[in-house]
């Protein structure tokens, strides 16, 4: 782990770069906005920690109404459980006895649940739970249109649920119904059609399970691009949005973009002005994820981040005030989740000053 790039009280301008900045006013406004949008629907928020990888941020989300957290990996579940988060769902498949033993051990200190889409996995989780002496809720992931993971909705899900319910180490916990490919569909009509299909698939599955006496305590899914649709469906009980807390440049490209503020930035320093019309910053793609598009330069009209190499970001000066050598610029990442994973520290800023430093405690975490 690197030493922090700043100290509390320092002006933002003195933060060492590249650094991961969190604008605390915008971040808190995003948490409040999500709470106010979900309140009238009665749908719970189980925020996704794959975005922030931080037990501090998880606690702040829970203080503003989230009922728990989702994670994608055992290492993330560990970071949160060890940090005191009491209710964690691994919204994913976990394969391998060693990982499952680590996961089951967490049931001694937190309420943990996990997803499956294969009967073989039910047996593996059962063995891990038995060895740890715990009872674990298991959700069935159904494929609601993204064709990534998940069994077919309807009878295959019911068969797997009966298998889970028959185990003395496991409890049937509900269904995982995340439609990932809908999140960045650009028009509201495309998103509405995708989520209508996900809702219908989930409704049918929940109904068939109920007919067999299997109640779903969780029907979970949804991300920042579509959560208002799932929350209004009357079928989903939990929303798993993650990026809403930070809001990246790619989500801002959705037409009728979700109503959140950019709160996460990479602070970069201009390291070369040798080429006319070009400012080179010390934030290339080792500092900012470019899989969902290049970052935007914040609050500096006329500056365009046009290309990334490992350690260099090339900014074209197309208008406005040219940045000088050594000047610091805020970049809005194209994709927040993998950008966060490149840093050890959040530098929390408010009113131009550093207020806090929080570790990205689940950083990396291959497993
Ligand atoms: N739930 C699951 C299972 C996911 O994989 C993701 C993101 O990929 C999310 C929720 C949250 O999505 P977002 O960060 O877009 O809000
Ligand atoms: Mn993402």
Automatic annotation (TrEMBL):
SUPFAM superfamilies reported in the protein's UniProt record = PLP-binding barrel
Instruction: Return the InterPro entries for the record.
Output: Ala_racemase_N (IPR001608), D-amino_acid_metab_enzyme (IPR051466), D-ser_dehydrat-like_dom (IPR026956), D-ser_dehydrat-like_sf (IPR042208), PLP-binding_barrel (IPR029066)
In which domain of life is the source organism classified?
A: Bacteria
What are the UniProt keywords, alphabetically? Answer: Lyase
Q: Which SMART domains match?
A: D-ser_dehydrat
Q: Which residues form the D-serine dehydratase-like domain?
A: 263-350
Keyword Lyase recorded:
yes
Question: Would you kindly state one Gene Ontology biological process term found in this protein's UniProt entry?
Answer: D-serine catabolic process
UniProt-listed Gene3D superfamilies: Alanine racemase (3.20.20.10), D-serine dehydratase-like domain (2.40.37.20)
**One of this protein's Pfam families, by short name?**
D-ser_dehydrat
Provide any one GO MF term from the record.
Answer: D-serine ammonia-lyase activity
The record's family statement is:
Belongs to the DSD1 family.
The name of this protein is DSD1 family PLP-dependent enzyme
